[in-house]
Write a structure and sequence with these properties.
The protein is 46% helix and 21% strand. The protein is of the alpha/beta class. It has four domains: 127 residues, Response regulator (Rossmann fold), CATH 3.40.50; 143 residues, GAF domain (Beta-Lactamase, 2-Layer Sandwich), CATH 3.30.450; 72 residues; 162 residues, 2-Layer Sandwich (Heat Shock Protein 90). The protein has a six-stranded antiparallel sheet, sandwiched between helices. It has a five-stranded parallel sheet with strand order 2-1-3-4-5, with helices on both faces. α6 packs antiparallel against α8, α10 runs parallel beside α11 and α11 packs antiparallel against α13. The longest helix is centred in the middle third of the chain and has 61 residues. The two termini are 67 Å apart.
Length: 537
């Protein structure tokens, strides 16, 4: 049926009028369904879809005026144009018909050329409206598809979503989607196949896909309406292959197959092309994520290898420096002692840098695992104070401790908890001038987790009266390698990794870290970690 032809419901109680008009309409290519009154018209509409209704007013059983409001309340018929053909040509009847929902009103006897013109005009408006509705529906569908695609960055899931929507919207018995590998398709998502695809070797030769060569040559969707049995699915008769591009490179292929020849219409092919444009972005993003994972893995392996190789000579250098400083191999003068102390100090600094880089690499790759158990916080704090006491005393700083005796155990990895506190205390004395004050506090508190459950936590704070952090730099303080722009703070050696590692370690403990700071007045870092008897591993 072309654009000049339509399915017309003719409702008139006169057999002669119906027969005469139906013959004339059918002569110009329209298909006519006849009904002698409103009630029969409603029955016909339950079995037939129509494009336009020609309606008489004066009818028994159910008149045209009674039928009009019923039609306009039926969702599937609200937008069907209705032209009234009636012998009642008074203004009151015309106005009433238009008010009840008729699009046009022609009094009998009418001119056939005029009726044809009115029918064509109404059909033209309906087709424009239907096109607009299809576009709006397609836009809504593509928005839903985008939402699903944007919710994942996993390649296989992206292809499953795309294939599912393709089959759902345009039909077909089977379909597959995957990436090109030389002369074959590596299938990552499929539907409707049984023995045609092997799970342990999900590859299909492109020779089995008749539409592939045309699709790759033209750079767009290719449709073979009659494959004469060629295809992946048994008894394939029609096939679609859609290449997905990132710039000029094919990043994926989408294939649909049907056992029916000429399965798909042009509007369905157009939708698939638009779907492919949307899916290509998600596939490209998923590929970038996979490439990033591979790169991160390679970087982690490299850092791990280099760290191991560096620690061997560093251990040797430090060992020999300690032996010389012991005096067991002959006396050393004051200058030599200074040089050896410098060597040992720099080896220790280098060792901390290597350790930090190793921790960052393991955190990023998810290879750093905690060995958690109930830990007494006071014991860990004592060890940290002992390890940092010399540096604190060297700057004549005061270290205050405020830990309640009744503090419950925390659920933590002892070594990593010690690392967290050491990093925070080291930052405190490093960026606090001489005669400053450092305060370590702890208390029990309740926190609400993501499931809205109350969880007992230990709140620890490390406060100093040091340099503080500029307000405009506070958002970046936990970033890797970030050290700010304060000239006085930059005089102290550091890598900018400590706080990033500390934040990640706290979060690995199911905790949270934050801080408050005033420039040139001091900084307080806070973190919370779970209480041992309130933790649910």
């Amino acid at each position: 049926m072309n654009d000049d032809q339509a399915r017309i419901l003719l409702v008139d109680d006169s057999d002669i009028n119906r027969d005469m008009l139906a013959r004339r309409l059918e002569m110009v290519g329209h298909r006519v369904i006849e009904a002698e009154n409103g009630r029969v018209a409603l029955e016909k509409l339950t079995h037939h879809s129509v494009d336009i209704i020609l309606l008489d007013i004066m009818m028994p059983v159910l008149s045209g005026f009674e039928l009009l409001p019923i039609l306009k309340e039926m969702p599937d018929l609200q937008n069907i144009p209705i032209i009234i053909l009636s012998a009642a040509d008074d203004i009151e009847s015309i106005v009433r018909g238009i008010e009840l929902g008729a699009e046009d009103y022609l009094p009998k006897p009418y001119s056939m050329p005029l009726l044809k013109a009115r029918i064509n005009a109404s059909l033209g408006r309906k087709r424009l409206y239907d096109q607009e509705q299809r576009r709006l529906k397609e836009m809504a569908t593509l928005q839903r598809i985008d939402a699903e695609l944007n919710a994942t960055l996993e390649m296989r899931r992206v292809m499953e979503i795309t294939l599912d929507w393709a089959l759902r919207q345009v039909g077909g018995e089977a379909g597959a989607m995957g990436t090109l590998q030389e002369d074959r398709l590596h299938i990552l998502a499929s539907h409707g196949y049984t023995y045609e695809i092997y799970e342990d070797s999900p590859f299909v030769l492109l020779d089995q896909l008749p539409a592939t060569q045309q699709a790759l040559q033209d750079g767009r969707l290719a449709y073979v309406p009659d494959t004469a049995g060629g295809g992946l699915l048994a008894r394939t008769q029609s096939q679609i292959v859609l290449p997905l591009y990132r710039e000029t490179a094919v990043i994926a292929l989408l294939m649909l197959e049907s056992t029916q020849a000429h399965q798909w219409q042009p509007e369905q092919l157009d939708f698939l092309q638009r779907l492919g444009n949307h899916a290509a972005i998600a596939v490209a993003n998923a590929q970038l994520v996979e490439a990033m994972k591979v790169a991160n893995q390679a970087k982690s392996e490299f850092v791990s290898f280099v760290s191991h190789e560096l620690k061997i000579p560093m251990t040797s250098i430090k060992g020999y420096a300690d032996l010389l400083l012991s005096g067991n191999f002959g006396p050393i003068n004051e200058a030599q002692t200074t040089f050896l102390d410098t060597i040992r100090s720099n080896v220790n600094r280098m060792n901390r840098l290597v350790t930090d880089l190793t921790d960052v690499s393991r955190l990023e790759s998810g290879q750093l695992h905690l060995e958690t158990q109930p830990i007494q916080l006071a014991e860990v704090v004592t060890e940290v104070m002992s390890a940092t006491r010399a540096q604190i005393e060297a700057k004549r700083q005061t270290l205050a401790l405020m830990l309640p005796d009744s503090l419950p155990d925390v659920w933590a990895d002892r070594n990593r908890l010690e690392q967290i506190l050491t990093n925070l205390v080291s930052n405190a004395y490093k960026y606090t001038p001489e005669n400053g004050r450092i305060t370590i506090c702890a208390e029990e508190m309740n926190s609400v987790n993501e499931e809205a459950e109350v969880q007992p936590m230990i709140h620890v704070s490390v406060a100093d009266t040091g340099l503080g952090i500029k307000e405009e730099e506070q958002k970046a303080i936990f970033n890797k390698f970030y050290r700010g722009s304060d000239d006085e703070a930059l005089q102290s050696p550091g890598t900018g990794l400590g706080l990033n590692i500390t934040k990640n370690l706290v979060e690995l403990h199911d905790g949270r870290i934050w801080f408050e700071s005033k420039y040139r007045e001091g900084t307080t870092f806070h973190f919370i970690i779970p209480v041992a008897n309130g933790h649910h591993p």
